């Protein structure tokens, strides 16, 4: 089963397989709009907010993503797994380095 993941501010989309993280699908699709670091839920640079769609998450460092943030729809792309098509926005603190024109 495959899902479409869209970064809404960029109109960039990737196709994400069940069990593949949002970050991994973007890397595989050569979309570099989500900052990438540890790929293990530890550093927090890949923080996103899910605007629409159901998803599951893996273990995430609570120092970089609080439970309150998670309740508000924030997540870490490397530990976010689509359960249906997703609309996301990039909110990680390195976002500024990626601008809006990539
Ligand atoms: S890349 Fe480090 S938490 Fe996602």
CATH architecture: Roll
Helix/strand structural class? mainly beta
DSSP helix count?
A: 2
* Cα radius of gyration in angstroms: 12 Å
- Characterize the largest beta sheet: strand count, sense, and whether it forms a barrel: 5 strands, mixed
Number of strands: 7
CA distance, first residue to last residue: 28 Å
Helicity level, as a percent range? 10-25%
Strands side by side in the biggest sheet: 2-1-7-3-5
Tally of domains: 1
Strand content: 25-35%
What molecules are bound to this protein?
Answer: FE2/S2 (inorganic) cluster
Helices and strands, in order, run as EEHEEHEEE
CATH topology: Ubiquitin-like (UB roll)
Coarse morphology: globular
Tell me, rounded to a whole number, the average pLDDT.
91
- List low-confidence stretches: none
CATH-level-4 superfamily name = Beta-grasp domain
CATH class, please? Alpha Beta
């Amino acid at each position: 089963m495959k899902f479409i993941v869209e970064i809404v501010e960029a109109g960039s989309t990737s196709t994400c397989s069940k069990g593949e993280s949002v970050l991994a699908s973007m890397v595989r699709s050569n979309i570099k709009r989500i900052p990438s670091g540890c790929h293990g839920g530890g550093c927090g640079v890949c923080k996103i907010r899910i605007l629409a769609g159901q998803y599951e998450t893996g273990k995430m460092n609570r120092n970089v993503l609080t439970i309150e943030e998670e309740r508000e729809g924030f997540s870490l792309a490397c530990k976010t797994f689509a359960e249906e098509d997703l609309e996301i926005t990039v909110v990680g603190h390195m976002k500024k380095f990626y601008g809006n024109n990539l």
